[in-house]
Write a structure and sequence with these properties.
The protein is α/β, with parallel strands linked by helices and about 250 residues long. It has one domain: Divalent-metal-dependent TIM barrel enzymes (TIM Barrel, Alpha-Beta Barrel). It is built from 8 helices and 8 strands; from the N terminus they run βαβαβαβαβαβαβαβα. Strand 2, helix 2 and strand 3 form a beta-alpha-beta unit. It is globular. It starts with a strand and ends with a helix.
Length: about 250
């Protein structure tokens, strides 16, 4: 069964952790990816005692912490910048493991202008492989969001996955515009279906421009049992919208 959760990127940006958990529980959202830098405050700087407190809050609720949503990226030609992102990713991996999560969302953010795309892809892949090795030691996934200028192309993500070549480096499908070919996402989905991880991102389910019904059917064919995490635009009445969203999700995935 497909599970519904949310990313605190927009709906929950200004919610503290207690509010995130309370609102997800009240509306039937089973899991949450906590986007770094937002008001919830679950960051790599937390002490062991603070991490234990966060874990207990989730353990005492019906809501699962699926992992942190980082902004770590690995495309930069400057080796020092890439290395700092790898080190920060490792800190997020430890944070996720301490709190009970199962993986860390990362991203490629762009292809480097003026550089051979294969060089950028190889750099990203090498960095992800290093992160994957660290994640494996902590029972975590590295969830690579289908994201970024040039890199959100599923064909490019496939090349990045092939370059990374590590079982703990997986894909976080992102339901991006432009993935359809003749109205279908199947061709692009098939490029990445073997690498889907424990989470993927979805947006406005009423959007007629994106074939969400087909996406859910393809996921079921894969026996996908991870989280579909809503990353929908902010609203002045989030609880009402979340209830409507859950009802539509259940109808579309029945």
């Amino acid at each position: 069964m497909l599970k519904l959760g949310m990313v605190t990127y927009l709906w929950g940006k200004e919610w503290d952790l207690d509010t995130v958990i309370k609102n997800c529980a009240a509306t039937g959202f089973a899991g949450v990816e906590l986007r770094s830098t937002h008001k919830h405050g679950v960051e790599v700087e937390l002490s062991p005692a603070q991490r234990a407190e966060v874990k207990q809050k989730f353990d005492d609720s019906p809501v699962e912490f699926v992992g942190p949503g980082s902004a770590c990226e690995y495309h930069d030609p400057d080796h020092g910048i890439v290395q700092r992102n790898i080190e920060l990713t490792n800190e997020f991996v430890k944070l996720s493991a301490d709190i009970g999560g199962t993986g860390v969302k990362v991203r490629p953010n762009r292809l480097v202008k003026g550089e051979d795309p294969q060089v950028t892809i190889a750099r990203i892949g090498e960095a992800l492989r290093e992160c994957g090795k660290f994640a494996a030691d902590h029972g975590q996934e590295i969830r690579v969001e289908v994201h970024g200028r040039g890199t959100k192309d599923p064909a490019v993500i496939r090349k990045i996955m092939d370059a990374a070549d590590h079982p703990q480096v997986v894909v976080c499908w992102n339901a991006n515009p432009g993935e359809t070919v003749n109205g279908s996402i199947k061709m692009n989905f098939d490029l990445l279906k073997h690498k889907l991880g424990g989470t993927l991102h979805i947006h406005d389910l009423f959007d007629q421009q994106y074939p969400y019904q087909e996406l859910f059917s393809l996921l079921k064919q894969q026996d996908y049992d991870g989280y579909c995490l809503s990353e929908s635009p902010a609203t002045s009445d989030p609880l009402k919208v979340m209830r409507y969203y859950k009802a539509l999700f259940e109808q579309m995935t029945a």
